[in-house]
Amino acid sequence: MSRRFGCALAFIVAFTFATGPVSAAPLAPRKASELVSLQASPTTTSCAAGNGRAFDLQFRPDGSTLFTFSIPAGQVLVVTDVTFQKSGLAANATYAPAVVTDSLFSIPIVLPTVTANAAGNAGGSVSLQHGLVVRSATSICFFDNANFTARLHGFLAKDK
Question: In the chain, what are the domains?
Answer without folding.
Answer: 30-158 (2.60.120)
